[in-house]
Each structure stands twice: as C-alpha cells, then as structure tokens.
Amino acid sequence: MSIRPVAAGLLFTLIPWTVAADHKTFSLYTFDSPPYQQANPIPGGPEATGETVETIRCAMEHAGAQVNIRLMPQNRARFALQRQLVDGYFAVDPSPDLDEAAEISHPVALEKWYWFYLGQRPDPTTAKIGVVGGSNEEVWLIQNGFQPFVTVSSTEQLPALLKRQRIDLALMDQQVMETLREDSPALDQTLNREFLRYAPLHLYLNRRFVSEHPGVLTRFNRQLPECMEQHMLLSADEYQHVAGQARGLIKDLEQRLNLAQAIHQGPVYDSFTEILTQDTLWQALAPEQPTPLASEILGLPASQALKRWQDEQGGLVTELLLTDNKGALVAMSQLSSDYWQGDEPKFQEIAVETERGMERKSDLWISPIRYDASTRQFQIIVSVPIPLKEPNNGLEGILAMGLAIEKTLHNYERLARARSEQVPMELPVAE
C-alpha cells in the first residue's frame, strides 16, 4: 500500500486551513537559511526572523496585511503551496511548477551564488556537485542541465563533504557561507570560490488567496523597494568599483555628446506649476504611451544620441536621463515613468538650492540596488552634476544613468576572484 495518501492526510491535519477562511492574518511558509530566514526561540514557540522575513513583514504591513511566518523544509513548503494549504511561500527562485499554482511577486531578496571548491575549480559539467536538497540552488541546477551528485539536508554539511573530497563543488549563497564561518571560527579549511549568478528570490501567493484578497499583491510589490533598501546597499568595495566604472562610462559619453549644450536645447518651463502639470499628465500615460511633451523630448537629437550610446554598451546601461537645474527632463534614452525628477534622490543628492541658485551638493551619487519592474531586473542609479562654467559651483542640471547590477558587479567579481586566487579565502568546513 502506498503511504503517499496517508502522508498527505497527515500534512492536512498539521497545516492550518487558512486560505478559505475570512482572515486578516495570512499564513506564509519559508525555510531555514540564516541570515535571510531563521528561527528565533521565544516563549510560546519559535519566531521567524532574518533579512528577508523583515522585508516580507514590512511590505505586507504597508499593504494592509499581517502575516504569520513559519519555517518548514523546502519540499514540504512547496507541497503545501501547490495544494493551496498555505497562503504563500518565500524566498524562492521562479519555478514553472509553482507558476502553475501561484502568483509570483516582485523579488523580495537578491542572493549571490558561488561555487565553493578546493584547489582549482573543476568543470561543473563533469564535477560532482553538492547542494541542499529541495533548495533554490538544486532547482536551478536541474533546470539548467546539471544533475547534483549529492543532496544534503543542511548547508553546514557541504563544506565537510568538500573537505572529505566526497564532492568537487558546492553551490551556496555567499551570506549563508559567511554565516557558517561566523558560527564556526575554529574551522580552518581553505576553500576557493567563484561567482556564479545573482539570484532574485520571490514570494509566491496561491491563486485563491490572490482572488479573495484583490490588491494585496499589487500593494505588496509597490512597498518592496522601500522595505528592501537597507538590505540592498553595496559593500564598500562594490561601491568603489561601481563609482570607477560609472566615471569611465560618463567620460566616454561626454566625448560623444555635449551634455550642457543638450540641456539648453531641451524644452523649458519657467513656471514650477507648469512642470508639475506636465508631470501629472506624463505619469498618467507612461509607460503605455508618451505625452506630446514626451514625444518631443524623445525626438530630440540629444535623446537619440543617448539611445545610440546606451545600445552600444551591451546591456550594461539600462537608462539615461538628462535634466535641467529644476529637475525637469530635457533628454532621455527611453520613455521615463515621470517628467519631473526633482523630488527623487538622484536629483536631490546632487543638487541643492542656495541663495545664489541651484548648486552642486556632491559630485557623485550611487543608489542602493533596486528592482526595476519595467525591465524585470535589478539595477542601480548613478547621478552626476552637469556644472555651469560660472559660477564655479553652479549647476546646469544632472545626468542619471541606470546600470544593470548583474553585469556591473560581474566585472567586480572577476577582479575579486583574481585577487582571491592569489590569496585563498579562509572558509569553514564542519567536522
């Protein structure tokens, strides 16, 4: 006799049937993966904590919902979501199987996945790969034609298998490995690493939930950027790399286009009321269609030059915006979501109004990593001032440039890997 019906029936009794009920507190499952998700023992039972848990709670609260988050093995959580036994499950890579049963949110976390190994990196196509069973890494490997040699129940087992040469490669998130290192400082096994990919992870909500609670997912997605921001800051080394790469790109662009001249050739509204009026109309129509003003700006020679230069960067540059000293757009490489940029950090961190007029506040601003829903990728925004020749600190406007984080930091990781090959990184191996 098959035990599957019995196991399924037992699971039904263990999982609260919250989906059909009219409730304000929603039931979400995730899995143990410090520092993103972990159990915090408290009186009355363990409480889920961690970076991604904080993001989920924050965005759901701002969306008008309370959540009860429980930790569960990944395979069991997937089973529960696919059978609509739970309202949602996070943090997971996009999955065709889950897409059939649930609605996916915008990303709630961005992980950095590495190969970890001894000595020289083996060829992943022939190597014996170890991974946590049911994990996002295992799902991704199988979807991309890799068959794991060993699956384990917890991440701390993987360094031990590498040490014993039972596997050649372990696929893990960087922060998860760093957490193992912090918890086991006495472990002295040397491992090397090589960056593989940035992995955006999502919340899945079952379709019955989405149908019975219209608008929650939309509001949740809208709140995510603010709730994720503290977890999406660049490290000091990454910031320096991005700053250097951005300055090189901007220098190249300035050799192709006179940015100050382009500002003066754009449309001008002297009245701030007129700017806000145009911005309201612009936002009402974008991104589906441009307003007459947007069409005019897109047709300008400067906008066409920005678009050509962006296309030459091979996907590294995602957007270029040029504004006057009021924050109003005068040129753009593609249709922006709004006309007036003066209320956004990319302008406010560069420009400041003084008694003498608009002046430079700083020479460079780099945003945290943000998810761009229109392009479905993570990006950062870099903005710089376009200075007036006289007075010395005067401001013509600003240039804002979007950079695809995957491509930008891939360059950084290649440099970091070259350095690490000279001085191997000390990482933990559990006994």
UniProtKB/TrEMBL annotation:
Instruction: Determine if Signal is one of this entry's keywords.
Output: yes
Q: Tell me yes or no: is Signal among this UniProt entry's keywords.
A: yes
Q: Which Gene3D superfamilies match?
A: Periplasmic binding protein-like II
Tell me where on the tree of life, at the top rank, the source sits. Bacteria
Signal peptide feature range: 1-20
Record's SUPFAM superfamilies?
Periplasmic binding protein-like II
UniProt entry keywords in alphabetical sequence: Signal
* Designated name of the protein: ABC-type amino acid transport substrate-binding protein
Native source species: Marinobacter alkaliphilus
